[in-house]
Write a structure and sequence with these properties.
single chain; 10 helices; six-stranded mixed beta sheet; alpha+beta; 368 residues
Length: 368
């Protein structure tokens, strides 16, 4: 074999192994609590880049060093579960026709019910019934009683006429339901973020536990976002300068790392809360402020709850629609009492910085 061919083969082998090991490390990072290793919360953000790089190397090795292509292929196969969590493909899922045992839940970070952007809040309230939800869990709702009363008024003539909110904090967590809400409890809070539980009675003897989460945000200010957007649209470092670019990444990295620690603590509290509850149909949803390849979603899945979007969704499912960031940070998990029939992110651009996540569930039949 000519030396040039051997060199190319070895070069692609080394690059493939490097990419694969980095990809595996990224996938395994979700098992490490942020308090054990500061900054570990940043690692999962690189998953799409490492995945794309490994796929690109697989393509190149197939062209120029086919005998080495097994390395990248092995790396991708070993990460198949993580890849499916990040970008699931479920082409054979179909919409469940409305029946007595179907349930549609929508989780929606409303950004103050659209108060920060057009259209006005009244128009935002008018649009909520169009989501066709049986349960609407919202985050970043308005804490003022006047706006809550306005929400109740606009939903009073719809199926979502039962409303409740977490009154113990400024988290803006609430629920609008087609069924009576028989109990609620604040689980944890941190500033304007929090977790709250609501018990919904669908029928006598059929009560659901719905946990609405808004985990700690990354606290990025408008300067951080504007500079990041500028880098994405004009990648040249010269747009803002090398020193300012380094300062931006260091500042953003510190904020995300600190917020990861708080989110992990909030999830610990949620785990303790669920351990004290009797077994019942449970839905955990909300704005986690983390991608599917992150610590908190992995923790919830580790408790035995299924990721609804992973089970019945398709694609990346972009739920955060600002700042040129294509990620799904809104999640829904369900207990084994449910089959997930469909999951999708509904594009509603211009109303909030999030798109609503809609999941359709069906109660599993219990065989005696």
């Amino acid at each position: 074999m000519p030396r040039s061919v051997t060199f190319v083969s070895q070069l692609f082998a080394g690059a493939s192994w490097l990419s694969v090991f980095l990809l595996w490390g990224c996938a395994l990072s979700v098992y490490l609590p942020p308090r054990w290793l500061p900054g570990i919360g940043l690692v999962g953000l690189s998953f799409p880049l490492l995945l794309g790089g490994t796929l690109f190397l697989l393509f190149l090795t197939l062209l120029f060093a086919p005998r080495r292509s097994w390395i990248a292929l092995l790396g991708l196969v070993a990460c198949a579960g993580t890849i499916r969590s990040y970008c699931p493909l479920n082409p054979w899922t179909a919409e469940l026709r409305p029946t007595d045992d179907s349930l549609r839940l929508v989780s929606y970070n409303t950004q103050g019910f659209g108060g920060a952007v057009a259209p006005p809040r009244q128009e935002f309230f008018r649009r909520l019934p169009m989501l066709e939800a049986d349960l609407l869990c919202y985050q970043e709702g308005m804490a003022a009683d006047a706006w809550v009363d306005s929400l109740r008024h606009h939903l009073s003539a719809t199926r979502l006429r039962h409303c409740a909110r977490d009154t113990t904090s400024a988290s803006g967590l609430g629920i609008a339901s087609a069924f009576p809400i028989v109990r609620q409890e604040s689980i944890t809070r941190f500033g304007c973020n929090g977790i709250a539980a609501f018990w919904v009675c669908r029928a006598p003897g059929d009560t659901l536990l719905v946990v609405n989460c808004h985990l700690r945000s990354n606290t990025l200010d408008m300067t951080d976002r504007d500079q990041y957007r500028e880098l994405v649209h004009q990648p040249a470092v010269e747009t803002i300068g090398a020193e300012e670019t380094f300062s931006l990444f260091r500042r953003v990295g510190r904020k995300i790392a600190a917020s990861s620690d708080v989110r992990a603590e909030m999830i610990d509290t949620l785990e303790d809360f669920l351990a004290r509850q009797p077994a019942c149909p449970t839905i955990i949803c909300g704005d986690f402020n983390e991608t599917p390849v992150s610590y908190c979603p992995r923790r919830v899945a580790g408790w035995g709850y299924r990721d609804a979007f992973r089970t019945a969704g398709n694609g990346i499912g972009r739920s955060f629609n600002r700042d040129a960031i294509w990620v799904r940070i809104d999640h829904a998990f369900v207990s084994d009492h449910f089959d997930v029939v469909r999951a999708r992110v509904i594009p509603v651009y211009g109303v909030s910085d999030h798109n609503p996540l809609s999941i359709t569930l069906r109660r599993r039949k219990v065989h005696s």
